[in-house]
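In response to a reviewer's request, we include the raw inputs and outputs for one of the modeled complexes. The two entities were modeled together in a single run.
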Amino acid sequence: MRFERREHPSASLTLLAPIGAVLAALVVAGLLIAIAGANVFEAYGLILKGAFGSRLGFSETLTRATPLILTGLAAAVAFRARLWNIGGEGQFYMGALAVAGFGMIPALAGLPAPLVILLCLIAGAVAGMILLLLPLGLRLKFGVDEVVTTLLLNFVAVLFVSLMIEGVMKDPLAFGWPQSVPVPREAELPKLMARTRLHAGLVIAVVMALAVWWLQARTVFGLRSRAAGLNPRAAAFAGVPLGRTLVAVACLSGGLAGLAGAIEVMGVKGYVTTDLSPSYGYSGIVIAMLANLNPIGVIGAALFSAVMFVGADSMSRALGIPSYIADVTVALSLLTMLVALFLTQYRIRR
Amino acid sequence: MSVLLDILGSVGMWEAVLRIATPLIFGTLGVLLCERVGVLNLGIEGIMTFGAMVGWLTVYSGGDLWLGMLAAALGGAVFGLLHAVLTVVFGLSQHVTGLGITLFASSFSYYVFRLAVPTSSSPPTVEPFRAYPVPGLSEIPVLGPILFTQTAPTYLALALVAVLAYGLYRTPLGLAMRMTGENPHAVDAQGIDPIRLRIGTIMAGSALMGMGGAFLTLAAFNSFFPTMVQGRGWICVALVVFALWRPGRALLGALLFAFFDAFQLRLQTVVDGVPYQLFLMLPYVLSILALIAMARRARVPQALMQPYRRGER
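The model returned the following structure tokens for the whole complex.
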């Protein structure tokens, strides 16, 4: 058996790859559900019903997709330039913490809400940027691989959040629970649907996906970041300033992940805890890969993950299957997607 | 100052160093093996989680402690095989595949754990490995309790360092492995199949990672709970760079690291006014510093992260 590279990977195959990957992941996860002793079709039916079956479920799915779109974009823009930002989780927390900290400034009280929201979003994005620029600096200056440093910084970031919310940012009214002071009312994102948690963050996330698509498809920066990823040496020969391009990519990627954290605090929680993120940062990596690093595709992949997470929660309550099945399915779909992409690029010959 | 000396002078502290180092030794040797044949294995964090879970589950359902270690090793090898098929046979991105393995292996572990223990406020415990004082040697003053009153897997980890150091540098197989990490074409020209060698080595390395995880639930603690690996796998990946891909230095790195960890644990209890989170950050910050210190000196295996396909350059 050997593999032969396809000269022209067909467009339809490339589009089918994520669908095939998701189906394969669902089949394997179905086996795990069956082993646990439940009816697979009933389980998947309940997942769909939980995610779409009611107004509340549907709004929860969209609420859950919001941070996932942003962390997915964060990973997608970085991976495209071969910047291995695995630190989305930490950047998410720094963005969240920055909003809570920024909200403590007394001068904000008199400002109009849209301005406060804008400033808070910027604060969150900048915090995420800083946490990614650190490991990028180490790579550019000392040649330290950013995969491991960004991974390690995730743990440092969560501990830093814990330090702050048990220290200077602790909410004195939270009955001793370690949580930050709430963000000011002016910084709360408006709701999109009454009596649900769905908030304007979803619009911001979708606009960001479109903006990233435009940046990558229509600007010099997009071309350069792609060239830097495809072949850094050739790109350098062609006059692409590698260092500067990577810094810009890191600002965008870290900024998006920080924005995800900021929006989650401003739209859903209102304050920061150390369990704010059910690993949104890591899921973002899966979502970016499922989308084949395409910013518009990220929206679809984030929706798929959100359906799994929200649906599995309600399915779990009904059938007693651990809701970790959602994490298993999403993680599996990353592996199956890698294989599917491979099959679009290679032919298997006997 | 006398507080510091008290800590450094206590036998308990030095005994803890070797205990804390053990999972890191297993894990670091595992990563080292994979990278020596040219494959980055970021699956380690998930494989350690799976080893911790399956080792615990085996003993919890009535198996022997060593059966638990074996199950963890086999489980690790299976995930290693998956990683090898995707990265070596298909030549997929080693970064992304490894992360995928980690996400899959850890969520799968939590799923199986929740199936086995549906509801629990406190995780069920097992009877862990007891310290096994080596007859005679454990009676040496000071050194005896520190080096020779450990649990059996710790002795195994130390023995593995010697085996790997000898195997990698003094045997034909070790030479072939190192060569595969440098230049797989040359290995192929010698009539050795670098693809098979890579697959086998990744499975062996992943088995070690699984055992490192099992040490956590079967010796260091006595129960399993989600997120218990706490980035130890990533620390091992950093330690391999610190070790310059040599088993002896890997042991040194793990010990040095464990020393700081044991030291900060004891310091936390005596130093007032410093938030405990700063102490907990120390291991991760130290790993990053170790990476910076070694980045210039590191001589990375030349074929690391380069898939090998026969007849392709």
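As requested, we also summarize the result in words. Residues 183 and 189 of chain B are 10 Å apart (CA to CA). The radius of gyration of chain B is 20 Å.
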